[in-house]
Amino acid sequence: MNTSKRLIAGMVCMLVIMLLSGCADRVEPGELLVVTAVGVTKGEKGRYHFYFEGINPSEFTETKRQNISNSFVFDNEADALSGAIAIISQEIPLKPEFSHMQLIAIDKQLLEKGDYDYLDFADRFDQIRNTLTLVAVNGDELGHIFATTTPSLTIPSFGILRQLNELHNSVGGNYPTSLLQFMKNLTESGHNPTLPYVQIQNPDKKAESIDYAKQLNKQTKINLKSIAVFKEEKLVGELKNLQARDAVVLQGLGRNTLYNYNCGPNKFVSIALQFASVNKKVTYKQDKPVLKVYMHAAGTINSIQCANYFNGKSEDYNRINKEIDKSIKQDLMETLTTVQQKYKSDIFGFGEALRISNYKKFKQVKDRWDEEFSRAEVEVEVKINVQRSGIRGEPFTNRIKNKKY
Amino acid sequence: MNNPLYENWDELESVIQRTFGKTTDFVKVPIVFNNRKGWILYYSSLVGSDDLSSKLMLPLNLYAGKTDSLKQFRAEALASINYQYLSEWVSIARQLNKNSVCMLVEGEPEALTIEIGGYSERALSEPNIQPSVYGPKIAFTEDIVTNLSLLRRILRTKSLQIESYDISSDMVTGAVLVYLDGVIDPGLLEEARQRIRSLEGKKVTTLTHLMKQLRDNQKTNFFPTLMMNERQDACIAKLMEGRAVVLIDGTPSAIIMPVVFQDFFDSAEDAYLPKAMLVFLRLLRYFTFFIALLLPGIYIGVINYNYEIIPINLAMEIAGLRSNLPFPSVIELLLVEGAFEIMREGSIRMPKIVGNALTVVGALVIGQAAVQAGIVSIVVIIIVAFTGLCSYAFPHYNFSFSVRLMRFAFIGIASILGIFGIFLGCIALFAYLVSQRSFGYPYLQFNIKRP
Q: Do the Cβ atoms of B328 and A28 come within 8 Å?
């Protein structure tokens, strides 16, 4: 009697668990549509035009490969991202899954207007990670960008991300801004946001095919060398090439980078910096703000093009240290004043530094911080410690000039 | 006190017939002992004829005529053999069942039983279940005397104490409690004695019965609280730590008690290894324990509920491999797990000559064919194979039984509740392990210490 009662109780418990538990949430990975990237532009029928990059997962297996493309782009127009997702379900017989989404590309025009209504869903939806990378694009290029493969990386969004990370890690040329960071900068004063600006060079219909991987000369390229600059919440312009790099360094986000200076007419000394660290400080000198930047880093000599410039002695190192300090200081000053005068927007986080060090003062100038920033004096101090010269001391150009034998 | 063995010599034969029945291996031989009639009784299945003739018949021929009584005969001719004088048929029967021969002589009120033995036994062999590279190549045998000799040959000390108990319903099957006097905790010793004594009169013929009776928790036995061991060196090591060893006649293993959870992760081999290697192996075994227990469950939980925690490249791979398969992941996993368990069981039961062929062929055929036919995905094969390998890494075979079974419980709960279910299951398992006791010692403690 007792055992049968227990058995029944156990079975009832199991039944209750099975009925009340999350069995309904069960997904089968074979029936998922893995969405890896979303693009947003202005729409015609709906408010926005959404581009999605979906994965053909069978292409990643050895046994089920069909030799079709690894990813595909589909798009639709809707008033909100959630509406667009609902439309996907009507078109593709798979359950869209967003937890592996890594990239949201946003049209420049939307950013220029400061339209962020599509982002609330990304911020709110439990599947979407807030560590995904945001990039700015030109609206009419978006379809091409999501369809153009990079050599060896056959999913376009992977290519962009890998390229962006590589660029950041090796030369600090750009910074993959996460959704979380972008939102933080957007919602706090004292540090205006920036986004990587993705452009495509020579967009070509031919490049939007897996056969393009077979071509040797690939002219269609993704260009990541610009940074989109925001003022308040609106995109106002871009910084290109070395200025973009300087902006990343000044934000304190670049760890490794490369600086050159002239050692002779059209000849360069190139120094690789590691462990770059930037401290910012804001003080007020008679009601005029002074922006102070202290940068220090360890350096390695990458190349010396001038003969008899460097002999591997300690005074040579000292000379190089002084020269590179001067050159970097000049570069940073230029970039800072450009941003000050052209965009009048503090994208470097000086306001944040003031808030941390002098909150009272920051409170007074909070609402007009960007004007304060643009009229501020700038002081840059750079201390680079070049200690290494690779596996060679004297450059071989010296030995060409002073032959021993 | 009680009835004499017989009233009248002539009716003795019918008394014997009544007592021992008509079993064919029972032998009764009439003899003449110094002009008196006598009987020799024994079981031919327990007493070897060579031993019988050399130990009893030869002395009988030489000395029987010269002695007046049975006692004198024993003292003169059979001085080196274990004996008993018995006056009850019940105890005579018991002694006969312990390889003895009984002598009855007309006019003597008591029967003489002497231990002859001499049936054939298996020779000492290498340990099969727990082989080791460096340790002694001797395993226990079915014979209790041999096993005790194996222990005393190493522990040559007077503090090695051996207590014999006649358990089981007819008080014949012998169990032996071995311990080191002065090392063992007196409380533990008393409890061990009590538990073995409580078995007297119950049906205990094998080690499994004995273990069932000796356990603390009689109802549930998800994890073993007593250790079976067939190695001499392991038993000696445990004896020296102050634990008790129980041997039972007819089983080539010893029971070590008490044991805690951690003891199942050290093998006898460990004593011969350098310290660093030992630590590494110990960590590896804990790792394999969690893999063998949880991996299939985690797989199901992650695949079906927490898909987002898989790294993206792996997620795409799995999604690709799982596409267009006929069964849901749980059914698929259970199918492959079932096939693996059948293969495992089949290869044990297989005659040894074909045994090796079966595992290889079975694994190849079932795995490869099932994947190619598109019935199961290769991920599941990898998961099951890795889990199976991990469950072989335990030094103690009966511990891996528990892990094998609990694994299915974890698959079940993960298929309903996902990763959350795995955590719930782990909490329940941990609570269960903490509540277990082995002879009063907490099961989940690191060193064996009584609280």
A: yes
CB contact under 8 A, A23 and B416: yes
Whether B250 and B122 have beta carbons less than 8 Å apart is answered as no
Domain termination residue (choose one: A192, A208, A239): A239
| Same structural domain, A177 and A53 | yes
For residue A70, is it within any domain?
yes
Residue B77 sits at φ, ψ, to 5 deg, of: -105, -25
Contacts for A1 with CB less than 8 Å, ≥ 6 apart: none
Question: What's A276's domain CATH number?
Answer: 3.30.300.210
- For residues B411 and B407, what is the distance between their CA atoms, to the nearest angstrom? 6
- Distance between terminal CA atoms of chain A? 107
3-class state of residue A316 by DSSP: helix
- Compute how many other C-beta atoms are within 10 angstroms of the C-beta atom of residue A153: 15
Q: How far is A124 from chain B (nearest CA, A)?
A: 16
Structural domain containing residue A267:
255-405
Residue B339 near chain A (CB below 8 Å): no
CB of A33 less than 8 A from some CB of B: no
Q: Say yes or no: A49 and A120 in one domain.
A: yes
**DSSP state string for A47-73:** SEEEEEEEE-GGGGSSSS--S--SEEE
Query: Would you call A97 an interface residue with chain B, using a CB distance cutoff of 8 Å?
Result: yes
Same domain, A233 and A281: no
Asked whether A139 and A108 are in contact (CB, 8 A), the reply is: yes
pLDDT digits (tens, 9 = 90+) for B66-119: 777 878 888 887 777 888 888 888 888 888 887 888 888 887 888 888 888 777
Are B329 and A29 within 8 A, CB to CB?
yes
B321 min Cα distance to partner chain A (Å): 6
Mutation for B interface: A3, A11, A20, A21, most B CBs within 10 A? A21
In whole angstroms, what is the distance from residue A215 CA to residue A148 CA?
13
Q: Are A22 and B325 a contacting pair at CB < 8 A?
A: no
E strand segments, B261-419: none
Q: How far is A330 from chain B, CA to nearest CA, in Å?
A: 43
A283-290, Cβ contacts within 8 angstroms, sequence gap of 24 or more: A284/A361, A285/A377, A288/A375, A288/A376, A288/A377, A289/A354, A289/A365, A289/A372, A289/A373, A289/A375, A289/A376, A289/A377, A290/A376, A290/A377, A290/A378, A290/A379
Total domains in the fold of chain A: 2
Tens digits of residue pLDDT in A165-210 = 888 888 887 888 888 889 888 888 888 888 899 888 877 777 777 7
Among residues A184, A213, A239, the one where a domain terminates is A239
- CB-based contact (8 Å) between B319 and chain A? yes
Query: Cα(A379)–Cα(A398) distance, rounded to whole angstroms?
Result: 37
Q: Do B378 and A64 touch (CB under 8 A)?
A: no
* A216 in contact with chain B, both atoms CB, cutoff 8 A: no
Instruction: Catalogue the long-range contacts made by B354-361 (C-beta closer than 8 Å, 24 or more residues apart).
Output: none
Whether residues A283 and A365 fall in one domain: yes
Domain boundaries, chain B: 9-115, 144-259, 270-442
CA B413 to chain centre: 33
Tokens at residue B405, please?
Answer: 């079974």
Domain shared by A97 and A194, yes or no: yes
Same domain, A267 and A235: no
* Sequence-separated (6 or more) residues with CB below 8 Å from residue B246: B175, B176, B177, B178, B192, B196, B210, B214, B254, B255, B257
Where residue B1 falls among pLDDT bands split at 50, 70, 90?
very low
Report CA torsion sign: B295, B299, B305, B311: positive
Strand A32-42, strand A48-55: pairing? antiparallel
User: Do A169 and A224 belong to one domain?
Assistant: yes
Nearest residue of A to residue B308, measured between CA atoms: A99
- Tell me, yes or no, whether A226 and A280 share the same domain: no
- pLDDT tens column, B3-21: 677 777 777 888 888 888 8
